[in-house]
Structures are given as structure tokens and as C-alpha cells.
Design goal:
Phosphatase 2c, domain 1, Beta-Lactamase, 20 strands, elongated, 41% helix, alpha+beta, five-stranded antiparallel sheet, 3 domains, 18 helices
């Protein structure tokens, strides 16, 4: 027992003689031990500290990195090492917070001199270098994985917070030099809402000599601030001019700002604005170098995404310009839909068409050119025009039209592959009297249509049997299938983007479509199409989606044949 008491006394003397401040907190952040160095460093008598909480003695630490570190260590059991500027003394402290079952043990030391000299010690330097290397690696991986500009800038914001900044704003720059704030991130979810509001007001309020303007003009990183809480108002006045913007940024309490231009090919395409809270250290030279590297990689990625987006919008615009409204025959209601892929780069060559042939029959087309780019969209336009010309000149049936299209592609050198299904609705006198319509169709490698009978049952027409794709062999035979439908039936043509994605194969997708059509069979045709799209792709398809749905309304026997339904010759 005597030996143990001697050891405890020896440990106590060692703790008291240490030049490092040592304090212990209970789980309520109440001081239960303070050594002499700690009391001397914080310039508060030990008897005032013991029994009081950290927040009672030092209320100015609430909301700072110190509070976040203490609470994080207490709640997670993770050790936290960080640096904190303490404005009342104009000193920097390095704190080592170690959680235990009874509370926190904290060691801290004055590192002001080393901060001013830029000497961070070999261990800290190695750790920082590795962390920044990891950041650069993650930046390249994350930004190269998307071609969507909005996704890219939000990924960038999440990468740099909290490793390079407490919060940040990512902006794009127009050719005229105007900034547009695109993404915001803050390490505190509550303050992220404030930062987002600030971003909405910031661009119109940026001060003439603000670091944002200077960074864009100089094409180099510009930093301002001194990290002191009492300097916040001065820093805010250098950033923005309007009362609303100043109020919001003051609430965010920055101590440092770094404006880093996003460069691509020597052009400034945007800005990365980094902020660190008052009371936090500024950026080291290595951190600023990493920020410039991150911004360079981000600039290249964002510019690449922009070019892909422009190409995709061109392709989509070309597609939409060719996807005309369907005719309105008396014997049927026709609904069409086109939905581009959620990823802009996936816009391709899906198309639909519906028109009346010279003989009065209504012809429907659904097709998909292989590929997902402007070339696919352009090829789609060629095929659509060729098919229309062949169908309206020849007045031929679906197989004849597809065969003619295949031969025309070979003669004209349209080197592409495509699937297509062509259908025609026909009716002779007897069928018209009984309210029946014949569906005649031919399928060049496309998914088969589905039919909803008046009783609500749904069938796949023709199974998976289809002829060769277009563009493979211009002499390939083309077959036709014929089905007699009752008045009130609905035929549903679609492209594979509706039923196939990264998680669902074609068989499962068609089964889902069939189930949805069964469930929504009684809906009006336009509502049916919207409900199916919502159920299967929720407005965000992986691939283009085109569909054509036809509901046969029939025609009263005593009204005679409508002008757009050609009677068939006998036999």
C-alpha cells in the first residue's frame, strides 16, 4: 500500500511539474483536475476552475472548434488533436483530447511561436501531407465518375469540407465574367442553410476589391483574414456590400477566406471559395498548394462535363424537334411520350412516329438507334425521314416499309444499326361492322408491343420473336404479324429505356411493365402513360425512353368508314 501511495505521489509531482497543460473533465465537462501549467496558461486560478464547467469559465469557446472537438470526443470515444486560436491572449494552442469512461483528459500547449514561424513538426507535416494526398486522389476519382455539372460541383464541395475548409462555395463563371454560385457545403448542417442563403445573395453583393474578384483577375489563389474573432466585421466589409449579405456572412463568422480560381485550358471557368471559422488557424503553404491542385482538377472535370452536357442538349434538342405530335384519327386515340436519360451524356437515338398513309391507314413507328450521342440523334433523324418517305410514297405495309428502309440505308451509306417496330391499323367492312380492327406489324429487332384487351388483361404480342436489326443485311426477309383487336383495346409500343436499367434485366422489366399496365388499364390513355412512366422510371431513366400508346375507340357501324381507315380487299 505504501508503495502504491508513493507511486501516486510521484505521478502527481510529475503532472504538476509538467510544462504541458493537463486538465481532466467529467462527463458534464466539469473540471476535476487542473495542473499548475494549465492554470498558468489560461491565466485562471485553479480554485476557480475546479468544480466549474468549461462553458461557465470560458463561454467564448461555445460554438468554436474546441466545443465541437470536446463534444465529438465525448460522444464517439475518438481522440481529437487540433489547434485553436484564443483571442483574449492572442495565442495559439495545440490540444490533444483523449476520451475515457469518466470524461475527457486534455493536454494542451502554447504553439504560437511555431505557428508564426510556420514550423509544425515532422509528425504533423507527414500527417498533413498524407491527408492532402488522399484528398487529391479522391478528387480525381470522384469528379471523373460523373459528367453531370451539378453533381460534379456538389462532389467538389463535399470533398474540401471539412478537410480544407469549414465551409465553401463553388461557382461557375460566364464568358462575360459573371459568377453563379452552384454548390455550398458547411461542416455544420445547421449553418449550411445559412451558407446557402448567403450564396443566393453573395454574387450581387461582392465588394469591388473582394478576394473573389482579385483571384479571378490574377488567376491565382488570394487569401485574406487573420483568424481573430474581433476582426470578423472588418473581414466581412471586404467581402460584400449589402446589409443582407453582411448579416448572413457575419452569422457564419469566418476568420479566413481563400479564393481559388477553377482553371481549364488556361481559362478561368469558376471559383472555389474556402472559409475557415474565426479562432481557427489559417492555411499552410502545403494546404494552399493542395487547394490549387484540387481546383485545377475540378476545373478540368467541370469543363468536360459542360462540353458533354452541351452535346447532349444538342442531341436532345434534335430529337425533340423530330418527335412531332401524332395525328388524331377518328377510330383511335394516340398518346406519345419522350423522356431523356437523367445522365445528359446518355441521350441517344430513341424515336417514335405516327402518321397517316395515302390510303388512309394510320401507321405507328417506334425505334432506337444504337449509341448515345449527337451522331445517334442525327442518325435517328435520317432514319425517321427515310421511313416516312418510303411509307407515304409506297403506301406499303409494315414489312415492306422496313425492307425499303434497310435497302435505302445501304444505298445512301447510312452506317448505323437500329431497331424498329412498325405497325398499321386496318379494317374491312365486316370488321368495321363488328367493331374490330386488325393490327398488322413487323419487328426489326425491337422489343415486342403489349396489348391491353377491353377486359383489362395484358398480353405480349409476338413474344420475343423479331427479325434482324436494321443496318445489318439489306436483303434480310421481313415478316409480318396480324392480330384482331376489339374496340377499347390499347396497344403499347416502347423502347428499352422503359424496362431495362442497371438493376433490372429485360425480362424482369417487361414483367414490371405488364403488371403496371394491368393495374392502370382503366385509366384514360394520357394518364395511363404518365402512371407507367412514374412507376417504372420515376422521371429519372438511365436511358432514353420513347413510347407510343394507341387506344381503339372504334366507329359506329352506321357512320360508315372513317377517312383514315382503309378497307382491306377481300381475302
Amino acid at each position: 500500500m505504501a508503495a502504491e501511495e508513493g507511486d501516486l505521489g510521484r505521478a502527481q509531482r510529475w503532472l504538476e511539474a509538467s510544462e504541458t497543460g493537463l486538465v481532466c473533465f467529467d462527463r458534464d465537462f466539469r473540471f476535476v483536475y487542473v495542473n499548475a501549467a494549465a492554470a498558468q496558461l489560461v491565466e485562471v486560478p485553479r480554485d476557480r476552475l475546479l468544480g466549474s464547467t468549461q462553458w461557465e469559465v470560458f463561454p467564448a469557446t461555445l460554438g468554436t472548434e474546441l466545443e465541437r472537438a470536446y463534444r465529438h470526443a465525448m460522444s464517439t470515444g475518438e481522440r481529437v488533436v487540433f489547434e485553436q486560436y484564443w483571442p483574449p491572449q492572442d495565442l495559439w494552442y495545440r490540444l490533444d483530447v483523449r476520451p475515457g469512461p469518466d470524461g475527457l483528459d486534455v493536454a494542451f500547449a502554447d504553439v504560437t511561436e511555431s505557428k508564426r514561424l510556420g514550423d509544425e513538426g515532422p509528425a504533423a507535416t507527414a500527417h498533413e501531407a498524407q491527408a492532402l494526398l488522399d484528398l487529391l486522389t479522391e478528387t480525381s476519382a470522384a469528379l471523373s465518375a460523373t459528367l453531370d455539372i451539378d453533381e460534379a460541383v456538389h462532389r467538389l464541395a463535399r470533398l474540401v469540407v471539412p478537410r480544407l475548409a469549414d465551409w465553401c462555395i463553388v461557382s461557375s463563371r460566364t464568358p462575360g465574367g459573371q459568377l453563379t454560385d452552384l454548390a455550398v457545403a458547411h461542416r455544420d448542417p445547421r449553418l449550411e442553410r445559412v451558407a446557402a442563403r448567403y450564396a443566393r445573395h453573395r454574387v450581387a453583393a461582392i465588394a469591388p476589391g473582394a478576394p473573389a474578384h482579385r483571384a479571378l483577375a490574377a488567376r491565382e489563389v488570394i487569401t485574406v483574414g487573420d483568424g481573430r474573432a474581433e476582426s470578423i466585421s472588418e473581414l466581412v466589409s471586404r467581402l460584400v456590400t449589402t446589409p443582407t449579405a453582411r448579416r448572413l456572412v457575419t452569422e457564419l463568422a469566418p476568420g479566413w477566406v481563400a479564393s481559388v480560381p477553377l482553371l481549364s485550358g488556361g481559362r478561368v471557368i469558376g471559383l472555389l471559395s474556402l472559409y475557415r471559422d474565426a479562432g481557427r488557424p489559417g492555411w499552410t503553404a502545403r494546404e494552399l498548394s493542395a487547394a490549387v491542385d484540387v481546383a485545377g482538377r475540378a476545373g478540368t472535370a467541370v469543363e468536360t462535363a459542360r462540353l458533354y452536357t452541351e452535346a447532349a442538349l444538342l442531341a436532345e434538342g434534335l430529337q425533340r424537334s423530330l418527335l412531332t405530335d401524332p395525328p388524331e384519327p377518328e377510330h383511335a386515340e394516340i398518346a406519345v411520350r419522350y423522356l431523356p436519360a437523367v445522365e445528359a451524356a446518355q441521350v441517344g437515338g430513341d424515336w417514335y412516329d405516327a402518321f397517316v398513309q395515302p390510303g388512309g391507314t394510320t401507321m405507328l413507328v417506334i425505334g432506337d438507334v444504337v449509341g448515345h450521342d449527337v451522331q445517334a440523334a442525327a442518325a435517328m433523324g435520317q432514319l425517321r425521314s427515310l421511313l416516312r418517305g418510303i411509307a407515304t410514297h409506297s403506301d406499303g405495309g409494315p414489312a415492306e416499309v422496313l425492307a425499303g428502309l434497310d435497302r435505302a440505308m445501304a444505298v445512301l451509306g447510312v452506317h448505323t444499326l437500329a431497331t424498329a417496330a412498325v405497325a398499321r391499323f386496318e379494317q374491312d367492312d365486316g370488321e368495321r361492322d363488328r367493331g374490330l380492327v386488325r393490327l398488322r406489324w413487323s419487328n426489326a429487332g425491337h422489343l415486342p408491343p403489349l396489348a391491353i384487351h377491353p377486359d383489362g388483361s395484358v398480353v405480349v404480342l409476338g413474344g420475343w420473336r423479331a427479325d434482324l436489326l436494321l443496318g445489318v443485311d439489306p436483303g434480310a426477309p421481313r415478316r409480318e404479324s396480324v392480330l384482331t383487336l376489339d374496340r377499347g383495346s390499347t396497344v403499347f409500343f416502347f423502347t428499352d429505356g422503359l424496362v431495362e436499367d442497371r438493376r433490372t434485366d429485360l425480362d424482369a422489366g417487361v414483367a414490371r411493365l405488364r403488371a403496371a399496365l394491368t393495374e392502370f388499364a382503366a385509366l384514360p390513355l394520357q394518364e395511363l402513360c404518365d402512371a407507367v412512366l412514374d412507376r417504372l422510371v420515376a422521371g429519372r431513366p438511365d436511358d432514353d425512353v420513347a413510347l407510343v400508346a394507341v387506344r381503339l375507340t372504334g366507329h359506329s357501324p352506321d357512320q360508315g368508314a372513317p377517312a383514315d381507315v382503309a378497307p382491306l380487299p377481300a381475302g
